[in-house]
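2024-03-11 09:14:02 INFO worker-7 job=invfold-0412 stage=load source=structure_tokens
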């Protein structure tokens, strides 16, 4: 190596000269940039016309695009004018015209307002048919549907005559008269349909209706059949001495469907009360124009109860119904047996007297365990699952919880309590006959043939109710049939007691 080489220099100035010399890697490419500069992302460097590129041999070529990025660029280029959500071509001109015109698309299921019907009137077609034919058609309908057909237009009324309304006025057709009048709820906000009478009555407590216990007279209108035991008003038993008259279901659902002036808010039905050692909490919600109810009943239970004491704890001595909320089919199936099984899981405290206590303590020491009578109770596979009534939309959950006993304010005492929660669907509030859910919960003939597992599907009433309250989902809970064997003995059977 010659003396003029930079590597042979010695001294302070030579050190800095070598340190500040540009490295070889910085002299990779030297070109004259022009308008036709090639894309450096390609696999090889292809110089264009008028461009001089000098590449070093030790520099690898730039990699190509990643497959996902190349697919994204290709998809964006192909779908530049399409909607990313629907995949449809977006015509901005059509969108602006639709906003300017402001008409409602009849095919849009989410369009608000009334859809205008531009079809030609059909009175001429109706009038072209002879009255005898319309009479024959109406003979296949029940009195309520026949009156609804005559109420449709003046042409049909002239063809059918007043006979459909005369048939509704008969005492034997009182139920059909109520079915027909239930369709007029939206037009009469100051009146309420009375089902025992089959007519509309003027509301006497308009806007201030309040749900009271069953032993208190609470008329919402002046009805001549108020104290007629042969024509009782329809009502649903919530718990002992607590009922839900159908008129309150009407009021809440009318206020939800039409306007607040038609009824009362659903929040006004919720209550808390105590009776016969049980504490109850009821809550109501409206989901898809159906009234949902949840009733939670709690009662302290002593451990080791014999069968007779379990019956005294669960059943009312007045009507031999459970103290908690139950549907009309509670005697059929395993509901009460599951409650008695849950009571049997409450831990029993051990005897601590004399040698028996020493024996138990010695066994606990040898097994390295501590017996705690106030420990959390775990239920078995028989009483733990949620029960669903197969004949009506009702679901039951039985639990044993450790709850604070506040009867003595001076001491902090926790005791085991049985908790029975019932969720049910009380229907759409049109009438006790037309609402299949109400008729099924009451055990009426109109509710026969109701299959809750087919109607409800995989979504439970409890999951729907709790998701509307907490905006969250319940943990997975197995739901089994309350009557898996399908036996319908009612009071004739002895298994329920």
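2024-03-11 09:14:09 INFO worker-7 stage=emit residues=497
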């Amino acid at each position: 190596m010659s003396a003029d080489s930079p590597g042979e220099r010695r001294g302070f100035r030579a050190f800095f000269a070598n340190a500040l010399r540009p490295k070889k890697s910085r002299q990779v490419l030297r070109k004259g940039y022009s308008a036709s500069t090639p894309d450096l992302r390609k696999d090889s460097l292809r110089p264009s016309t008028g461009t001089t590129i000098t590449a070093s041999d030790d520099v690898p070529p730039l990699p190509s695009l990643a497959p996902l990025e190349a697919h994204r660029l290709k998809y964006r280029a192909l779908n530049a004018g399409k909607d990313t959500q629907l995949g449809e071509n977006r015509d901005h001109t059509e969108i602006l015209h639709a906003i300017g015109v402001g008409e409602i698309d009849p095919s849009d299921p989410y369009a608000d307002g009334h859809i205008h019907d531009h079809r030609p009137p059909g009175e001429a077609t109706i009038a072209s048919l002879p009255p005898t034919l319309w009479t024959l058609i109406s003979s296949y309908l029940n009195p309520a549907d026949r009156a609804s057909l005559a109420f449709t237009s003046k042409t049909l009324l002239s063809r059918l005559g007043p006979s459909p309304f005369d048939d509704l006025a008969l005492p034997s057709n009182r139920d059909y008269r109520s079915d027909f009048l239930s369709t007029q709820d939206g037009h009469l906000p100051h009146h309420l349909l009375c089902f025992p009478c089959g007519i509309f009555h003027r509301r006497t407590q308009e806007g201030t209706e309040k749900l009271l216990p069953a032993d208190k007279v609470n008329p919402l209108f002046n009805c001549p059949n108020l104290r007629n035991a042969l024509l009782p008003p329809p009502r649903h038993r919530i718990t002992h001495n607590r009922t839900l008259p159908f008129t309150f279901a009407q009021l809440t659902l009318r206020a939800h469907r039409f306007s607040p002036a038609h009824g009362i808010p659903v929040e006004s039905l919720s209550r808390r009360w105590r009776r016969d050692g049980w504490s109850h909490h009821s809550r109501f919600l409206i989901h898809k124009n159906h009234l949902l109810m949840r009733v939670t009943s709690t009662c302290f239970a002593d451990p080791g109860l014999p069968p007779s004491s379990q019956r005294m704890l669960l059943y009312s001595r007045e009507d031999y119904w459970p103290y908690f909320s139950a549907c009309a089919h509670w005697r059929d199936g395993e509901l009460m047996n599951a409650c008695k099984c849950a009571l049997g899981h409450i831990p029993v405290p051990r005897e601590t007297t004399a040698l028996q206590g020493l024996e138990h303590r010695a066994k606990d020491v040898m097994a390295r365990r501590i017996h705690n009578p106030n420990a959390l109770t775990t239920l078995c596979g028989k009483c733990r699952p949620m029960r669903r009534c197969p004949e009506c939309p009702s679901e039951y959950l039985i639990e044993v919880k450790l709850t604070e006993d506040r009867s003595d304010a001076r001491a902090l005492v926790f005791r085991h309590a049985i908790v029975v929660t019932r969720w049910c669907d009380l229907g759409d509030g049109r009438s006790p006959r037309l609402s299949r859910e109400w008729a099924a919960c009451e055990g009426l003939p109109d509710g026969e043939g109701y299959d809750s597992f087919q109607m409800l599907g995989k979504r439970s009433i409890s999951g729907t109710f709790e998701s509307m309250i907490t905006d969250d989902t319940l943990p997975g809970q197995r739901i089994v049939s309350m009557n898996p064997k399908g036996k319908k003995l009612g009071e004739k059977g002895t298994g329920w007691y």
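2024-03-11 09:14:09 INFO worker-7 stage=report msg="Residues 354-367 form the longest helix (14 residues)."
2024-03-11 09:14:10 INFO worker-7 job finished
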